[in-house]
Amino acid sequence: MNITNYAEERLSSDGQESTESLPSEASNPDWIVMDGQEVRLQDILNDYRDIRQQYAMLNKRAEKALRGYRQAQELRPYQAELIKMQDYLIENQRRMIIIFEGRDAAGKGGTIRRVTRYMNERHYRVVALGKPTAEQETQWYYQKYAQQFPRGGEIVLFDRSWYTRVLVERVFNWCTEKEYKDFMRGVGGFEKDLIRQGTILIKLYFSVTQEEQARRFKRRQSDPLRQWKLSKVDLQAQDRWNDFTEVKYDMLQRTNTAVAPWLIIRSDDKHKARLNTIKVILNSVPYERLDQSLDFVPDPHVVLSGALELEYMEAERLRHSQFLHQPLV
Q1: Low-confidence winner among 35-44, 75-84, 169-178, 308-317 (lowest mean pLDDT)
Q2: Sign, CA torsion 21/26/32/38
Q3: Could you give the CA distance from residue 180 to residue 184 in angstroms, rounded to a whole number?
Q4: Which of 17, 134, 179, 233 is buried deepest, with most CB atoms within 10 A?
Q5: 76-319 maps to CATH 3.40.50.300
Q6: What is the pLDDT of residues 236-291, one digit of tens each?
Q7: Are the C-beta atoms of residues 157 and 115 closer than 8 Å to each other?
């Protein structure tokens, strides 16, 4: 009997030994002869099982690599459009600010990398400000952000922005009640002035489900290449999920204006979030399209208006018999 066929019969498709039609112990030899040498049958079966498992792992990696390649190819024509858009901004000396907000592990950083991958690096900057210094704490709140604002022909992408005050700082009580109220009263006018003076302002909030956030945190904990992404704040994000939901609701209710609206990016599917974010950015500028055949319409299941998100959040509260939270005056 061919030993490969015999091993295949002994193992089921999932790598487990088959329990059907097994030879009796008396008829199943412990040793067999292969190439003139005695070999333990169990050793051969173990080797075959290892090979099957290694093949399954390699096949999974190959599928992941192929999926990543296809997704990268889908993004490429839109990334080429971003270069064309950037040329328009440079030629017309227009300024652009893109705000990336959202919960931890919502996919902001990965999206920023895809947006900027092929851009002219002399005409864009990614700004991710850390904890304010002692000097910055004595300054006008917006000053550290204003110092990073773009010059003519430049794009600045804020990986978290001045909205840190009403999101992270609000949840962890890192700002006073007065500072919070002052921000809510003033941010609308601040953004209106930016836009009135010619800045293109795009406000994006990346929305991830609690289950997907937990999965991403778990991966960060187990992957040494991603552990640096896991901060002390991240570790509390799941426990304080409802608190972050409350501040998100308040923020949208008070700062989603006709002049500077929020756009919500559903980001459980990272690739769809990245592709549709690029479409949103391209649609904000009246540049001449490089490829008119491309579909520039964002997926309505991925990109939602701030007003629609508020409606969904209010409906969810009613389903759970919660009183609608009253905004701070």
Answers
A1: 35-44
A2: positive
A3: 6
A4: 179
A5: yes
A6: 889 999 999 999 999 999 999 999 999 999 999 999 999 999 999 999 999 999 99
A7: yes
Domain-by-domain residue ranges, the chain?
76-319
Q: Phi and psi dihedrals of 265, rounded to 5?
A: -110, 110
Q: Rounded to an integer, what is the distance from CA 214 to the centroid of its chain? A: 13
Nearest CA to 124 out of 91, 151, 162 is that of 151
User: Are the C-beta atoms of 143 and 136 separated by less than 8 Å?
Assistant: yes
pLDDT at 52 over 60: yes
Give the contacts of 326 (CB within 8 A, at least 6 positions apart): none
Whether 123 contacts 154, CB under 8 Å: yes
Non-local (6+) Cβ contacts of 92 within 8 A are 153
Give the global pTM: 0.80
Q: Dihedral (C-alpha) 111, 117, 123, 125: value to the nearest 10 degrees? A: 40
Cα 89 to Cα 293: distance, rounded to the nearest angstrom = 22
CA torsion, points 152, 154, 159, 165, in degrees to nearest 10? 0
What phi, psi does 297 have (nearest 5°)? -85, 120
pLDDT interval class at 28 (50, 70, 90): low
Q: Is 291 exposed, middle or buried (0-12, 13-18, 19+ CB in 10 A)?
A: exposed
Give Cα 138 to chain centroid, integer Å: 33
Identify the helix (H) or strand (E) that includes residue 156.
strand 155-159
